[in-house]
Design a protein that fits this description.
The complex is a heterotrimer of chains A (264), B (290) and C (330). Chain A is of the alpha/beta class and 264 residues long. Chain A is built from nine helices and twelve strands. The longest helix of chain A has 16 residues. The termini of chain A are far apart. In chain B, the strands form two sheets. Chain B has a five-stranded parallel β-sheet, with helices on both faces. In chain B, strands 7-6-8-9 form a four-stranded parallel β-sheet. In chain B, helix 7 packs parallel to helix 12. Chain B starts with a helix and ends with a helix. The chains are: A alpha/beta (264), B alpha/beta (290), C mainly alpha (330). Chains in contact: A-C, B-C.
């Protein structure tokens, strides 16, 4: 996979009358898992959808490698960036295999929609389902699967695109610890094989453990950008989340459960 | 006590005048025509009233009579008071007799009865005899029996002449005609139009299929039966309706001769149906020459 | 899986063509012989006229209108991701009737015959756009149905008004044709007016077929998979307006076909919205052909209206669907 990086330049986004993002600039490199963290409403999901090209209403630039995202043809962009939005839906009673196959949409020829998927497509789908361990329930309807199984199907769909850039929005919400770790391991593995992976998440412990870089958003701006050690300092966490630790914390063992809310 | 002799006299005069005028208006039906005021609440009774009564006798006719598509006396009808076919429209006027028909609601008729207003009910005529009976009853009630008898005599003479002419050919040689009203509705046996057909020397194609009046004559059956004449209504040119589009179906165009009748000519039966029959007979002669 | 679809399509196509041929030759009553026999006999002028001028237009219209309704139903469901979306239920057919009656009763269609289907299309377009504005973005069942009720109510009232205001005395009673639908006495002219426009509509919808597949995952994901949402919306909205509008203009409102057919065929198409489009077209055509044969051959003093049959089948089905979906929601 070609190494491609994704960069945001001075992104400003206003939704309605509210300023959601203000002057966001950062870049995500290949082979790295970048995490975007921040409080609810800090603009994380909006930023991710802007990076994916799903949200057009913003000022600033997004570049994929040397190309401007805005100048990229739709189909080309679909092959470069794979996006999984928050709370992904599956309408109709599609099974896991069918959902995964939809990941190959950018590669399907325009007027061949009635034909069999090509060998290449089938291989991509099989590989994706194998790495997410979805083969066991390939023929079962996705709506009937458990939360964890469903998450894996969606990830399989994302992996099937075989895009160098992967953007995932809060995939581990509502999953049990096993599934959460499994999901993040999959994404880290995708990054390590050469992908540029950006993920939005809430859990700071997991963010510290799995992400190579973190982007902390606060007040619609970039509060901190860097490695987990650089970002997850008590000062930053106090500013961003209004919480303080009982004692001097260790970034590898934040022990957030014991932190107190700052109330004044 | 406090009433002076002059005011008592005045009171007597007023009462006497009222008694005399009520005596005048309570003339029983059949008295001299000039004193009767008649209102009609139904299109067909309108038509008969307009044909036979003097203008002074006509108190009110329905609004439908002003429509030239529906009434042969439309222009004349407009000179009279217009009612909506209900009792309220005419109660304020001095009325001696009210004509009602099948479209007059039972509520209206009940109200007239409660108010003790004389009414005469005429059902729609479905045969020449029934028409004749209606005309006689009406002209008797409004005191125009002479006019009625004259017009009926004229009608019978014309029809008799037509019948003689048609009988010159054997009945099983008569051509077939089909009535095609809007929406493809036809006319069956035992109706006034059916009788006219016979006077004019036609057989009714609807009888071949056993169709009754107001049943649809299916287009396919029409093509199979192939009547010699299609009798249609003159169409509303400017504004179309689906009902009338049927006659412009490509399958029908050019298949048979068409004879047009004004809708007002057959809407309500009058003695001028004889003219309709005469026109049909003339068309039959044209057919014979084709 | 795909082999299954080919078989399904073949089966549906065969059914459709058989019903087409059957309708062409079946007699309307026991007294008449099979048209085919008549055509083959010597004295076949009348039979030929009946065949060309009456049967062919009627049967062909049943086929293409049925196909349009099935296709439009499946397309709307694919776009709105809602199994209750159907041209009749959501008011598109009703608005098409309004547009068509305006064009017809004003006399415009007498001057320019093409005004009739164009009027229907304009009415349908207005309704779909309105519907999409109200219920487009992730609207639930309730919003969609309410929007449909509102649009149907307005369109129905205005149609009745148009008919009442027409100076032609027969117009007022023709509301029955427009609301119940009928294929009786249609001519080749109707086929020529509506046919080409419907074909354009079909082409537009089928071009959007791959997009409906991606839309199964929601709009945001579909966009990320390279689907141009705006284009897809235009194609499906425009295509639906074209085929439903032109169809209603010549047959009146025939409801529920686009609801029943896609639902019945969805499982057989493996829940693939794109396959469902083609299958629904063939299925809709078959359904309407069968209903028209029933209407023509069931003896009754007044010919049954086509929309009555589809409503008798479709309305209970609609209720059943609502119950199923409410259960799923909970």
């Amino acid at each position: 996979m070609l190494a491609v990086n994704l960069a945001a330049h001075a992104i400003q986004c206003r939704l309605g009358s509210q300023l959601v993002l203000n002057n966001i600039s950062f870049s995500a490199e290949s082979t790295q898992l970048t995490g975007i963290i921040g409080t609810n409403g800090a603009g994380k999901s909006t930023l991710l959808s802007i990076l994916a090209g799903a949200e057009k209403n913003f000022r600033g630039r997004v570049t994929v490698g040397d190309t401007e995202l805005a100048h990229m043809p739709l189909n080309e962009r679909a092959k470069q960036i794979a996006y999984l939005p928050q709370n992904p839906q599956v309408h109709w009673d599609l099974n896991a295999q069918q959902v995964t196959e939809l990941g190959r949409t950018p590669y399907r020829r325009r007027f061949n929609w009635l034909s069999e998927p090509s060998t290449e497509d089938q291989q991509a789908v099989n590989a994706a389902m194998r790495s997410t361990q979805c083969e066991a329930f390939a023929q079962r309807a996705v709506q009937s699967l458990s939360n964890g199984e469903r998450m894996r199907v969606h990830l399989a769909r994302v992996l099937a695109v075989q895009a160098p850039i992967i953007l995932v929005d809060e995939p581990i919400n509502g999953l049990d610890p096993y599934q959460q770790i499994h999901c993040l391991e999959l994404l880290r593995r995708a990054a390590q094989s050469g992908g540029t992976v950006i993920i939005v998440l809430h859990d700071l412990d997991l963010a510290a453990r799995f992400c190579d870089r973190l982007l902390l958003l606060h007040d619609n701006e970039v509060l901190s950008l860097g490695s987990p050690t650089e970002v997850l300092t008590p000062a930053n966490l106090l500013t961003a989340y209004q919480i303080k630790p009982p004692v001097h914390p260790n970034v590898n063992n934040l022990n957030l459960a014991n932190w107190e809310r700052q109330t004044d | 006590m406090g009433i002076s002799a002059i005011s008592r006299l005045g009171l007597y005069i007023v009462v006497a005048a009222m008694a005399m005028s009520s005596a005048a208006t309570n003339e029983n039906v059949g008295a001299p025509a000039t004193t009767l005021r008649i209102a009609s609440l139904n299109l067909c009774t309108d038509t008969l009233l307009l044909q036979y009564a003097d203008p002074e006798q006509i108190a009110s006719v329905t609004w439908l009579s002003s429509d030239p598509n529906l009434s042969p006396f439309a222009a004349y009808a407009r000179t009279f008071h217009r009612n909506q076919g209900r009792a309220e429209g005419i109660l304020r006027r001095p009325i001696d007799l009210v004509l009602t028909g099948p479209t007059t609601s039972t509520a209206t008729r009940a109200m007239l009865k409660r108010m003790e207003i004389a009414t005469l009910h005429l059902d729609d005529a479905n045969s020449i005899d029934a028409l004749s009976r209606n005309i006689r009853r009406l002209t008797q009630a409004i005191g125009q029996t002479t006019r009625g008898d004259e017009s009926l005599q004229l009608m019978y003479n014309t029809l008799a002449k037509l019948a003689r002419g048609s009988k010159e050919t054997a009945k099983d040689q008569w051509p077939y005609a089909a009535f095609i009203q809007p929406n493809g509705l036809t006319v069956g046996q035992g109706s006034l139009s059916d009788e006219l057909l016979h006077y004019a020397g036609f057989r009714n194609a609807a009888t071949l299929l056993g169709l009754r009046t107001y049943q649809r004559f299916p287009l396919e059956s029409l093509l199979r039966v192939r009547p010699d004449l299609l009798i249609v209504q003159t169409q509303h040119r400017r504004y179309p309706s689906l009902a009338q589009e049927l006659l412009r179906h490509p399958a029908l165009v050019g298949t048979a001769l068409r004879h047009e009748i004004q809708p007002s000519a057959l809407m309500c039966a009058t003695t001028s149906i004889a003219d309709v029959a005469v026109a049909l007979a003339t068309t039959r002669q044209r057919l014979g020459r084709l | 899986m795909k082999v299954g679809f080919t078989k399904l399509l073949l089966l549906l196509a065969t059914t459709m063509l058989s019903l087409f041929c059957l309708s062409l030759i079946l007699p309307s009553s026991f007294a008449e012989p099979f048209l085919l026999l008549e055509l083959l006999s010597k004295d076949s002028d009348i039979a030929r006229t009946i065949f060309l001028e009456l049967r062919i237009p009627r049967t062909s219209l049943a086929l293409i209108v049925g196909a349009s309704l099935g296709l439009a139903g499946a397309a709307m469901q694919g776009l709105l991701r809602n199994p209750l979306a159907e041209p009749g239920v959501v008011g598109v057919s009703g608005s098409a009737a309004l547009g068509a009656t305006l064009a017809f009763y004003s006399g415009l269609a007498s001057i320019m015959p093409l005004a009739l289907p164009l009027g229907g299309i304009a009415g349908a377009l207005l309704a779909v756009i309105l519907l999409f504005t109200i219920a487009g973005k992730r609207a639930g069942i309730a919003t969609l149905l309410l929007a449909g009720i509102a649009i149907n109510a307005i369109a129905g009232a205005l149609t009745a008004l148009v008919l009442n205001l027409s100076p032609n005395p027969f117009a007022a009673m023709e509301i029955i044709f427009w609301q119940m639908g009928s294929l009786a006495d249609r001519s080749l002219l109707h086929l020529q007016l509506a046919g080409p426009l419907m074909l354009i509509g079909w082409a537009l919808i089928l071009l959007a077929a791959p997009a409906t597949r991606a839309l199964s995952l929601g709009e945001a994901t579909a966009v990320s998979l390279g689907i141009n949402i705006r284009n897809t919306q235009v194609k499906i909205i425009g295509g639906t307006a074209l085929c439903v509008g032109a169809g209603v203009a010549v047959t009146g409102v025939i409801g529920f076909v686009g609801l029943v057919v896609p639902h019945l065929l969805r499982k057989l198409c493996n829940n693939d919205p794109a396959q469902l489009l083609l299958a629904s077209a063939a299925g809709g055509a078959s359904l309407l052909l069968a209903a028209d044969i029933a209407v023509r051959c069931i003896p009754a003093s007044a010919e049954l209206k086509l929309g009555v049959i589809t409503a008798l089948l479709g309305a209970p089905f609609f209720l059943y669907l609502i119950f199923q979906l409410r259960k799923l929601e909970q």
